[in-house]
Structures are given as structure tokens and as C-alpha cells.
Amino acid sequence: MEYFKKILRFANPYRKYGFLNIFFNILYALFSALSFAALIPMLDVLFTPEKKVLVEPIYEGMGQLKDYLQDYINFRVNAYSGDDEMKGLVLVIGLVLILFLLKNFFNYLAMYFITFLRNGVLKDIRNKMYAKIVDLPISYYSEKRKGDVIARITSDVLEIQHSFLSILELIVREPLTILFTILIMFGISTKLTLFVFIFIPIAGMIISRIGKSLKKKSDRVQKEQGEFLSIVEETLGGLRVIKAFNSESRFYKTFTTSTTRFFHFSNKLLNRQNLASPAGEFLGILVIGVLLWFGGKMVLVDKTLDAASFIAYMGLAYNILTPAKAISKASFGVKKGNSAAERVLEILETENPIVEKKEAVVKPTFDKGIEINNVSFKYEDEYVLKKFNLKVPKGKTVALVGQSGSGKSTIANLMTRFYDVNEGEIKIDGLDIRDFTKKSLRNLMGLVTQDSILFNDTVKNNIGLGKADATEDEIIEAAKIANAHDFISELPLGYNTNIGDSGNKLSGGQKQRLSIARAVLKNPPIMILDEATSALDTESERLVQDALEKMMQNRTSIVIAHRLSTIQNADTIVVLQKGEIVEQGSHTQLMEKDGVYKKLVTMQSF
């Protein structure tokens, strides 16, 4: 129930619909019981005309309430019909029909209002999950498979709606239906009702034993669903490589292995779940059978119960079966929904390690420079940066070079606070970046990465990502600086052309120039270029390099470079090896040193 309480918090904004649902469920439960009780006078009119009540009965207290109501309805029917018994029968049938109509009308209204609550909670949980997914640091997703996260925000949230939130319909309606029905059953025959209560706990114990293993089985099903969704996501992302290496059969085998496991787990879960309904129904009919025997004895042998009351009593007893079955099914739903809620709440309750201070300041401008002081950082066990120091004055371009794994891209990740340093500090204008709000820090920076991350949207919307209020002229100007305007103009719909999933309708160079245009439009004072040209051909590289040089004018730039030919004009070149600076200076100075940098340049010249 702990998870249920946590999920129930999301129902708070929709509580008015919950109260309306409760109100109409109370009416439904009341009329559900009354509709069967109303059968007694109808049966009396049909089968025991000698019991006609011709004098209005007198109310003698709660102890005689059942007899009083029965005699009063009998009296009213006889007063209305006179000698025409069919007239009385039509009246009683009309009463029963009206009661059943009202019962079902109130049932509809109860379900109508709970729909807003259920779907509202579903929407809010998904919105909250998406906000959390976006807020969590990049490091979180290096441990999680994307398909598993997708499964949690889709099928797991839906499972919560089907299991937990369906209980909200049952919490009031079914118990009250049972309560009102039992009260009327006690009114008809206390002895017979007490006899029924001997069997109900036995039936409940049997049903509860069936449901004990449901949570474990449901957890396995949901985890496996996340597994094969991850395989689908990876397949779509790497389809080109899969086809190039003829690995379709290998991935198909991995996928079918997962779906086969899902098939077996689902079968076990559903077969156990499906057992609840027939088991509950059989146990209910068993109780009815025992009732027929015991009640029949009271009517035929003991003469302590009249036939009309007994038939209505049997209808009431059967009326308990439906809500009792619904409650037992709902208890299975709770067990099944528990594992889904656990997986959803795991994401919602994950603490973000990149914490923004309560008194964090907004940094609107960049005035002096960047300082990286004694920074050490590790992703897992080994340090990627060790006691790293660097100063980047305002308006200067600093290039970071070195072999793969030397820590170049890590510096970009730390400066943008995708990760926090383990030791040391990074300062902008003399203030630690951890003292800024994340939004204002990232507003100071533009990022162009090796992988051009574009979205399935128009060219215009991709360029305008960092500036929602950008005018068309500003977008075109940014595209011109990025050498992208010419090729955009040739697209079928120009700036309104959809570029497809991840921009796959464009070439590598075109995608990269759109990324640069996006950074230019944002117009940040600090630009971080993470191997922005390494994946391009010579012609595209020339166009992109030209765009980068135009973009870096009058800006502070940190350039992480693999191709050394692209950073020869940098004010300072920093050479890294295993997370430490081994050389530092201009291109000319480093070439004269005849050290690591010169070796790297020489290697790339061939």
C-alpha cells in the first residue's frame, strides 16, 4: 500500500471528481440493494394474494422496519389496484424497473466523473516523469537503457491506471454495495445471513493465496518489456551498421529471445490472474448452493421464512458476488500495479546529484574570463582529470588537443555542469559555477558537438531551439554565418522543410552547419566546440571551419580538436595526456619545442 499512497498524491488536483464519484457510488450501492428488495412485494402480489394488506400498517420502531416497509408497499399496491390484480403487478414491475434504471444511471455518473480523475493522474504522472527524465544528469542514462525508460513512461504508467486507479472506483462502490445488501439481508433473515458469514472468510483466504505471487511475476514481465524495447531502440539507432555487417539475424535472435521470455512470463502472470475470476465465481456459487439448502429448509420445514422473502434474499446474496469478485480482482491489480509503481517511482524519486543551491545567483553577463583550478574528476574509479589548471581570458581562443581518452571532452562536460567536479573548482568572472543557476550558466555558453544532434522538425525550429522568440531574419542571418543559407534555400520548403529523424535527410556537413547556426543564433559569449569538424569530409570541413571562424570572432572559445589543422590560429593550445597538461603555448611556440604537439602534427601530416 506504500506505493499506492505515493501514487494517490497525484489525485489531489482532481479530488472534486473523486468526491462526485463517491457520492454517485453511494447512490448506486443503495439502489443496487433496494432494487432486489423491491422484488418482495412483486412476488407477494404474484404468489400470495391471500397476504393482501388492506389497512395501512402502523410503524412500531426499527425492530419491525422490514415488516412495516413490506406491508406498506403491499398496502399501497392494493389501494392503487383495487380488484384488478394486473394493475398492481404493473405498478410493482414499474417500481422495480425505475429502481434498476436509477441504479445504472448513478453507476454511469460515478464512472463518468472517475474518468477525469484517472486520465488526469495518468497525464500528470507522465508529465512529471518527462520533467524528471529531462532534469536528471547525463550520467544517469549511461547506466540505464533508453528502452527501459521508455517502457516506464508508457506501459508502466498505463499499468498504474489499470490497476491502482481502477481501485478508486471500487473503494466506495463495491464495499457499500455489499454493506447495504447485507443490511437488507439481515432485515430479511438474521439467522440465514450469519450462516453466510461462515463461508465468506474461507472463500477470501483461498482467493488471497492465489494472488500472493503476482507482484513478483508482474515485475519480471515489466522488466522484460523494457529489455525488448531497448533492443528496438538500439536497432533503429544502428540500422545502418546492422545492415552493413549483415547482423540482422543476430539482432533478430536477441529480440526473439527476449520476446520468448516475455511470452512465458506473461503466460504465467495472466494464467494466475485469470484464475481469480473463476475461482471467485465457483466459491460464490458454492455459498449460494449452501444457502439454497439452508434457506430452503427454513421455508419448507421450519416455516420461519416466507417464499417471496427467500427468493429476494437469494437475489441479494447473488448481488454480493459481483462486488466481491471485483474486490478480489482489484487486490490482484494492486499486487500487479505495485511493481509498475515501483519502477515509475524509482525514476521520480531519483535524486539529481547536480544540485542547484537555494541562493544560486543569476549570471547575466561574462566580463573577465574562465579559471579551472586544481580540478580532478572521475566518471567511475579512475581519474580522467588530475589537478587540472587552465585560464581562459575573455575574447581568447584556447584549443585542447591530445589523444582519445586524455580528458578533452570531460572539460566541456564539467564547464556546462553536465557533471560536477570531484575536487577543485571552475570559476567564471571569479565565481564558482556551482553558485550560479544552471539556466543562467548554460545561457552563457554555446555548444557544438561532433555528433550533430538535430530533431525531427523543420530547419527553422532546429536553428531557433535556443531562442524561442527569434525572428525569421535572425534565423536567416545565423544560417548565413554558418554557411548554411545556400543549401537550406535549395530544400523543397526552404526553412520550413522537415529534416527527418535526427536530421537524416541532410548530409553530415549540412547537419553540422545547422548545429553551428543554432549556436550562432543563441549568441552566447562563451563557445565550446567539441571536435566539431572531425566527422566531415574535406569540402564540408572547409565550409564548417569557415563558419566556425566567423562564429568565434569576438567570443571566448574553447575548442576541443582532433584535427590539428583546424586550431593553428588559436591563442593558446593546451596538450593533454592522461588528464594532465604536458605542453602549452601558441602553435609556433609548440612547434619550436619539438615535443608532443609537434609529433601529433607530424603524424597527421601523412
TrEMBL record:
<keyword id="KW-0547">Nucleotide-binding</keyword>
<dbReference type="InterPro" id="IPR011527">
    <property type="entry name" value="ABC1_TM_dom"/>
</dbReference>
<dbReference type="InterPro" id="IPR003593">
    <property type="entry name" value="AAA+_ATPase"/>
</dbReference>
<dbReference type="Pfam" id="PF00664">
    <property type="entry name" value="ABC_membrane"/>
</dbReference>
<dbReference type="GO" id="GO:0016887">
    <property type="term" value="F:ATP hydrolysis activity"/>
</dbReference>
<dbReference type="InterPro" id="IPR003439">
    <property type="entry name" value="ABC_transporter-like_ATP-bd"/>
</dbReference>
<keyword id="KW-0067">ATP-binding</keyword>
<dbReference type="InterPro" id="IPR017871">
    <property type="entry name" value="ABC_transporter-like_CS"/>
</dbReference>
<dbReference type="InterPro" id="IPR036640">
    <property type="entry name" value="ABC1_TM_sf"/>
</dbReference>
<feature type="transmembrane region" description="Helical">
    <location>
        <begin position="194"/>
        <end position="211"/>
    </location>
</feature>
<feature type="transmembrane region" description="Helical">
    <location>
        <begin position="89"/>
        <end position="117"/>
    </location>
</feature>
<keyword id="KW-1133">Transmembrane helix</keyword>
<dbReference type="GO" id="GO:0005886">
    <property type="term" value="C:plasma membrane"/>
</dbReference>
<feature type="transmembrane region" description="Helical">
    <location>
        <begin position="275"/>
        <end position="295"/>
    </location>
</feature>
<protein>
    <submittedName>
        <fullName>ATP-binding cassette, subfamily B, MsbA</fullName>
    </submittedName>
</protein>
<feature type="domain" description="ABC transmembrane type-1">
    <location>
        <begin position="19"/>
        <end position="328"/>
    </location>
</feature>
<dbReference type="Pfam" id="PF00005">
    <property type="entry name" value="ABC_tran"/>
</dbReference>
<feature type="domain" description="ABC transporter">
    <location>
        <begin position="370"/>
        <end position="603"/>
    </location>
</feature>
<dbReference type="GO" id="GO:0015421">
    <property type="term" value="F:ABC-type oligopeptide transporter activity"/>
</dbReference>
<keyword id="KW-0472">Membrane</keyword>
<feature type="transmembrane region" description="Helical">
    <location>
        <begin position="20"/>
        <end position="43"/>
    </location>
</feature>
<dbReference type="InterPro" id="IPR039421">
    <property type="entry name" value="Type_1_exporter"/>
</dbReference>
<keyword id="KW-0812">Transmembrane</keyword>
<feature type="transmembrane region" description="Helical">
    <location>
        <begin position="170"/>
        <end position="188"/>
    </location>
</feature>
<dbReference type="GO" id="GO:0005524">
    <property type="term" value="F:ATP binding"/>
</dbReference>
<dbReference type="InterPro" id="IPR027417">
    <property type="entry name" value="P-loop_NTPase"/>
</dbReference>
